[in-house]
């Protein structure tokens, strides 16, 4: 009987831990990603501000040269 109770307890603990990990992972805030920078980049291009757009590029030196 002790073995059955121990395996049930271990299984319950494992299931509880798994549920907590999934729940906590789902509530973690995600980073903004590239969207804000892309919006700034295209806004600068739309107004003709190529210097600002170049600074927002991945390779600003090459963007300035182009």
Describe the structure in your own words:
The protein has 66 residues and is mostly helical. It has two domains: 1-29; 31-66, no CATH class. Helix content is 77%, strand content 0%. The longest helix is centred in the first third of the chain and has 26 residues, at 2-27. The protein is rod-shaped and about 75 Å long.
SS element count, helices? 4
Can you give the helix content as a percent range?
over 70%
Task: Describe the global form.
Answer: rod-shaped
What is the string of helix and strand elements?
Answer: HHHH
What is the rounded distance between the termini? 77 Å
Main structural class: mainly alpha
Low-pLDDT runs of 5+ residues are none
**Mean pLDDT score, rounded?**
83
Relative strand content:
under 5%
Characterize the biggest β-sheet. Answer: none
Q: Assembly state here?
A: single chain
- Give the tally of structural domains: 2
Radius of gyration: 26 Å
Number of strands: 0
Describe the SSE topology.
Layout: H1 2-27, H2 35-46, H3 50-56, H4 60-65
Helix pairs in contact: 2-3
Features:
66 residues, mainly alpha
Short description:
The chain contains four helices and no strands.
């Amino acid at each position: 009987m002790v073995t059955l109770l121990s395996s049930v307890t271990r299984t319950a603990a494992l299931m509880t831990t798994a549920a907590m990990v999934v729940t906590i992972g789902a509530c973690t805030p995600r980073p903004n990603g590239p969207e804000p920078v892309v919006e700034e980049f295209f806004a600068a291009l739309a107004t003709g501000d190529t210097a600002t757009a170049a600074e927002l590029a991945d390779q600003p030196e090459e963007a300035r040269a182009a």
